[in-house]
Amino acid sequence: MKPAHVFMTADAVGGVWPYALDLARGLSGHGVRTTLAVLGPGPDPQQRQAANAVPGLHLIHADLPLEWLALSGAVVEAAGAVVSAMANNSGADVVHLNTPALGSEGGFLAPVVAAAHSDVATWWRAVKQGPMPGDFAWRTALVQRGYAHAQAIIAPTAAFAAATRDAYDLVAEPIVVHNGRSAIDGPPGPELTDRVFTAGRLWDEGKGMEVLDRAAGRIATLVVAAGPLSGPHGQGVRLNHIRALGRVDEAEIGRRLHARPVFVSPSLYEPFGLAVLEAAHSACPLVLSDIPSFRELWGGAAVFTPPGDDAALADTLQSLMLDPQLRRELGAAAFERSQRYTVEATVDRMLAIYADLLAGGQGSAAQERAA
Q1: Any alpha helices (H) in the chain, and if so which ranges?
Q2: In what order do the strands lie in the sheet with 57-61?
Q3: Taking the model in full, what pTM does it have?
Q4: 319 pLDDT more than 50
Q5: 327 and 354 together in one domain
Q6: Which domain holds residue 358?
Q7: Is 318 a member of any domain?
Q8: 100-113 pLDDT, tens per residue?
Q9: Residue 9 near residue 102 (C-beta atoms within 8 A)
Q10: Hey, CA dihedral for 85, 90, 96, 98, is it positive or negative?
């Protein structure tokens, strides 16, 4: 049976926010209401307006620290205790934790779905080498305990499900539920602009912005990037050849994507990549780093370059600038592929998982998965 009420967690500063709103909106179409507990900084006025437009969504600003900003495991455990009390008091049928570490102490009365969006353990394996630093180690331990208490674990790609299983010594891989994304309002432009565009957390070393910056220095084409250049713990990136826009709103992202530039993502680590999907919805030709998750999602609908190879990336971008017909073909292929990754498909998959949990179909197997 499907749930009548889902309790979900999110934050308002990353990709989980649009994921949560899209999922809640889709669930409402099936008569399911959602309580969305937002940790960390509260939603801004535009975000609140978007949340208020979702039928059946009850928004709560929990005013609790985000796991990835917390200074100790005890802080996250305390936040998890508050969240579990909120969930229990809400009377929800299912709990959907977009931050699995919040489930490290258990205490939820309803079955828990832990969503593996990204985490420091898999990031470290993809981007760095050697032992993790101490603050990564305790965060990893909390996530592992959160998985152990969950009745189901989901991941947005098979590649990331495998990486999660390996990083956390899970008995089996998480359930794959591809992310969906609503298309940004407005039709794509009739012609492609002769520019290169990217968007995301530019400061994140896993996004490969230094590689793109070096590639930009090798070509005459303008490369534009949208997103913050500095992170919450002093991380940052210096771009010498890219025109950096800084943080911009969704409408500005949409305007630039509708002009159909070549969208590039040179990421070393990308569990899914919502920005790539948004670009594909606008029929932008895609140039992506050749990593397992991108191959899984976009193989045959994008051009791939070796991760970290700025020379190969520059050559690919320059070749595309000289071949408008190929860009049009790639844009059409990306748009066609994007139709697989819809909010409706995500919602249908999640409803099936919720229903199975409520029927007792996955609980024991999922707990064995995280034992």
Answers
A1: 16-28, 45-52, 73-90, 120-127, 134-149, 158-168, 209-216, 250-258, 274-281, 292-298, 310-321, 324-338, 343-358, 363-369
A2: 57-61, 33-39, 5-11, 94-97, 112-115, 152-155, 175-176
A3: 0.92
A4: yes
A5: no
A6: 5-180+342-369
A7: yes
A8: 999 999 999 999 99
A9: yes
A10: negative
